[in-house]
């Protein structure tokens, strides 16, 4: 397993070791000691799986005050994955990273608590798997508008399929400070 730092140091790209032969492949998708050695010390308590069609855009979601670190991976298909630092006081506040996750590169992305997260499906369908460090809490569910002009996220052009909820989220600058996590 290889952990690669991104432009936002707390966000890590994980390249698992993949063992291929004529039968297929094998890889570890999580190994507590190896991930801790890479700096990922979150205790994951919930796994989620979603299937989405092409041009589905999910996000940008976060929970507060019960934040969730996430370890995300695409099992089938391809997505453009986005993580936005929304931690008040962070040197990278409002900055984002993007990465293509797909079933060919088998990469994972570790997104710490305090980040908004979203993805756009690039293939006909995509199966998206993610581990969370805290349980889903509907009362703590929040979001940032995916098209926030101040963030300037470089989404590919297209007619996106969004939930009504995802189109109604505020821009980051309009979210009250007491609804944002604090950088520690």
From TrEMBL:
Keyword NADP: no
Enzyme Commission designation: 5.1.3.13
Pfam family, one: dTDP_sugar_isom
Pathway info: Carbohydrate biosynthesis; dTDP-L-rhamnose biosynthesis
Gene3D superfamilies: Jelly Rolls
Example GO BP: polysaccharide biosynthetic process
Keywords: Isomerase
Entry GO MF terms: dTDP-4-dehydrorhamnose 3,5-epimerase activity
Site positions (Participates in a stacking interaction with the thymidine ring of dTDP-4-oxo-6-deoxyglucose): 136
Residue positions of the active site: 61, 130
Reactions this protein catalyses: dTDP-4-dehydro-6-deoxy-alpha-D-glucose = dTDP-4-dehydro-beta-L-rhamnose
Function: Catalyzes the epimerization of the C3' and C5'positions of dTDP-6-deoxy-D-xylo-4-hexulose, forming dTDP-6-deoxy-L-lyxo-4-hexulose.
Self-association state and partner proteins as the record states: Homodimer.
UniProt-recorded name of the protein: dTDP-4-dehydrorhamnose 3,5-epimerase
Organism: Candidatus Desulfobia pelagia
């Amino acid at each position: 397993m290889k952990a690669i730092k991104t432009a936002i140091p707390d966000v890590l790209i994980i390249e698992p070791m993949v063992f291929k032969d004529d039968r297929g492949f094998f890889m570890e998708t999580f190994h507590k000691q190896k991930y801790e050695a890479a700096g990922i010390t979150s205790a994951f308590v919930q796994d989620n799986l979603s299937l989405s069609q092409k041009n589905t855009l999910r996000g940008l979601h976060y929970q507060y005050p019960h934040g969730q670190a996430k370890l995300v991976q695409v099992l089938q298909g391809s997505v453009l994955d986005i993580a936005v630092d929304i931690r008040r006081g962070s040197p990278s506040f409002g900055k984002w990273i993007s990465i293509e996750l797909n079933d060919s590169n088998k990469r994972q992305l570790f997104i710490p608590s305090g980040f908004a997260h979203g993805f756009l499906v690039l293939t006909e369908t995509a199966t998206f798997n993610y581990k969370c460090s805290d349980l889903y809490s509907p009362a703590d569910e929040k979001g940032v508008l995916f098209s926030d002009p101040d963030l300037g996220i470089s989404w590919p052009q297209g007619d996106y399929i969004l939930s009504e909820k995802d189109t109604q989220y505020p821009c980051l600058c309009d979210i009250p400070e007491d609804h944002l996590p604090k950088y520690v």
